[in-house]
Description:
This protein is of the alpha+beta class.
Amino acid sequence: MSYYFTIIGTRDNPLYEVELLSFKNASNLASTTSMSSAATSASTSITAGVASAAQEGSEGFVPGRSQFTQSTRELLPFIANSSIDLIEDQMWSNSMLNLGKIDQFYGISISAYLTQGQIKFILCYDSNKEEISIKQFFQDVNDLYVKTLMNPFYKVNDAIISPDFDFKVKLIAKKYL
């Protein structure tokens, strides 16, 4: 499962964007590669096979590797920006911050969250993820964004380039997505 997360400012400018990758099936791979000491050579060959599959770009699941095709990756910013109109339509008729799943585009679902300052969080994903985990992801990222706003050196609508912010968003994604 792959995710594309972006934060859009009040002037419809991107403040932050990242392609998040699912590690949820990594435990299955780890249990496959961790065998008894009697089968060490077999586990070494499996691990080598997984590494070569990652290098060759095979179609199997590789943890931490994007499942979006190259053509889809190029469309993700467009898909996120095209959903801004839907978000702005719903923000006047809905008092909730979490707008939930607002659209679907060629199998890519789009969920949105609106902050109190009209900053938009948009998550594009290619799976049937539970709404509750996406809602929790948005709430934790909102808390992180509020902490960023409290920084006296950060101005609203400036790009967020902090490596700490990026790292914490990825940790939150690993927890919920």
